Protein 1
Amino acid sequence: MSESAATPFDRSRPLALRLSGSVSRPGPTGDEAEFEEATAPPGSLWERMKTDPQYAPEHLALEAIRRLGPEARDWAARIRAERPGITSDELARLAIKRFTNLARLSGAVSGATGLPGAVVDVGVLAWTQARMVLHIAAAYGLDPTSPDRATDLLVLQHVHKVAETARLALGVAAGRERASRLFAGVEDRRLAGVMLRLGVKLAQMAGIRAAKRMFAKIVPGAAVVLGTWVNSAATTDLARRARALYRATGT
């Protein structure tokens, strides 16, 4: 499958419907279109995470360095060519400003409802945050396509406390990717359990506190929109940690 086929950018269907199949809504315009182009995780990633929710953060980190790493590398090279003399700190600030603003839109434009909508919201937020971290790494001269960046993502986002356990979990997830099958035809009750586990894992990765309580209270049909302040605060905190790490280790 080509990248264009795997990535859900069919403008005739809203983001939440393309990813969760739960609602319908007019197509995006303006800032919403920019948000979708910048942040929507590919559909194939959603399928892997639903199949294997226990390792959802690891699957997301692996996919991020594959799909978003080259973009971050090229962005840093382009800005440096356009603005000779720009410092690494200035370059990092550009990335942080853009992706913090995009994080504020997470949830507000998905158009989803209930449990599937909440999972879409936190998944998009976690994907946006991963993209920001890779851009910050590139700003400080590190290779955003390196497997080390996947390890960094999991430690920076507090999925794992140390790099050693993060690398081990990434290895397990990579093996499960190769061996997995896309799940289909599951019963509604089983699907709800999968979505609940996936939502909790992604919310924890995105820095959303009290994830278990938040998802436990969700019922089908209830409107769920993560607060822009919550998204912004979690993303800003992650940016601070990423800058500290890459400023110390970058070139």
Protein 2
Amino acid sequence: MLYEIRNYHYDPDKFDAYRQWAIDEAVPFLKANLDVVGFWVDSGDLPEVTGKTPMDLPLGSANITWILRWDDMDARNEGHKRVFQGEGWKEVWSRHPDANGYLQMEAKFAKAL
């Protein structure tokens, strides 16, 4: 199995509208069309950043994280094409409160041990 971990830094000034859109539109659609492990939004509590050389990042910690499960990278690439280029997602996306509110997006890939 391959896990796609998606971290977003969404504009804090527009975060409440994004959160409501995610609850009402995005998450139900994504869960119906993909193997969503989980979808998390920032709780408002301060993050804990520790370690020998913690980094002070200009944007801080991501305020949105969601994880998708795939068989492999080929399945991931095909799934993205099928879902995110489809009419259903285009309809959901058309109601996005501000598609330009993403300050940074990261997708990383991991395999379970």
Protein 3
Amino acid sequence: MNENNEAERKWYFPKARVSRAEYLEFLKVVQGLGTTCSRFFRKVIREAIGEGPDLLAHDLKLFREALYQVAALGRNLNQLLKAFHTGQPAGILVDQAALAGFRDQVEQLRQALVAVVLRSKHRWVKHG
């Protein structure tokens, strides 16, 4: 293949040689993560070169749950603001304890999401 065709090529196919036993164990890991070999290799490469995080299915579950919860909170806040701006109900008292609890839950969610991203970003970094 000449240099011009090489530069224009969109996809490359890295390869690795492993024993049958290693391959079978690797397949178990990939299946346990709910992904494919190809998707797993792309994930490893992207994270290793700093293109991450590239989350797997179990990581994405936390984000989906967080999105659902944040959407529910947003709907509740919109309803409260609409009621406040239309004057209904008059004289709503803000429960400071509930507000503080809400703030704490949002902070816990933020910390959990940051932990998932950081875990993904540092998954391939040598420790020790």
